[in-house]
Amino acid sequence: MGYNHHGLVYSINVIFPQKVLAGKTPRHFLCRALLSAKTMETAQQILRDRGTGSADGFSVNMSFTRQEGDHLFHNAEVGPAQDTDESPMSILTLSPGEHLLHTNKFLRLTHIPEEVGLCMTSSDHRHARAAQLPSPDNREDLECSTY
């Protein structure tokens, strides 16, 4: 997790692709570089890492608290840059009132093979359980024990 004086706040979820690439930028470095982002455009440029690309996979949940208008929430999935010099990336932007469950698996970059194991099984179970529940309409729904 991190934040900066430009109003960026973010958290990271690790995603485990089958191949972690040598000679590419480790996710720790890209996430550290996010601390310099002043805008969403800059954050995307950092994560895309043109010229090298990411060595592995991760998901970034972020928001810019000092922007004008509604506070938007962004989820970026970043994958390993295999056979390319920039990270494959998918950005989902949510407005106030929308919600997202994102665990340690790709939801949009589904063409990237992931490791099979406990982390994937756990993620699949959490998504399956969430699919059984009604969508939350307010904060109280999120705090309710039936969720």
UniProtKB/TrEMBL annotation:
Residues 1-135 form the Peptidase C45 hydrolase domain. Residues 137-147 have a biased composition (Basic and acidic residues). It comes from the Eukaryota. Signal peptide: none annotated. Gene3D superfamilies: Penicillin V Acylase, Chain A. It holds the Pfam family AAT. Residues 127-147 are annotated as: Disordered. InterPro entries: Peptidase_C45 (IPR047801), Peptidase_C45_hydrolase (IPR005079). This is Peptidase C45 hydrolase domain-containing protein. It comes from Portunus trituberculatus.
